[in-house]
Amino acid sequence: MTSIKAAVAKDEIRWDGPLYGEKKQQLYDEIDVFLFPTRYSFEAQPTVIYDAFASDTAVTSFARRAIEEQVQVCIATVAVDQSFHETATQFPTGS
Question: Please, which pLDDT band fits residue 95 given cuts at 50, 70 and 90?
Fold first, then answer.
């Protein structure tokens, strides 16, 4: 998480934390890519990924559990042993 905190400090990425309802939709409307660097080892099928896709927002996430299967080729994933920030910044934004 240190590289993510450093990227936030440099304004390279935006960290919003948990959002709900209209605030969540507003976030998806404002961003090009939703970064989901989950470290939760039992992550299954996070609905935030479906929410992002429903808003036509690209997603980059760690390749945890069913995430790759959940979205197949519609997502960029980062191996859990790689630096999320360094790897994710190499993916196209889709914009």
Answer: very low
CA–CA separation, 86 vs 95, rounded Å? 20
pLDDT one-digit tens code per residue, 4-39: 788 888 888 888 889 999 999 999 999 888 888 888
CB atoms within 10 A of CB 33: 19
Q: What is the DSSP string of 6-46?
A: HHHHTTSS-------HHHHHHHHHH-SEEEE----TT----
Instruction: Please state, in angstroms and rounded to a whole number, the distance separating the CA atoms of residues 13 and 6.
Output: 9
* pTM of structure: 0.69
Q: For residue 61, what is the enclosing H or E element?
A: strand 58-62
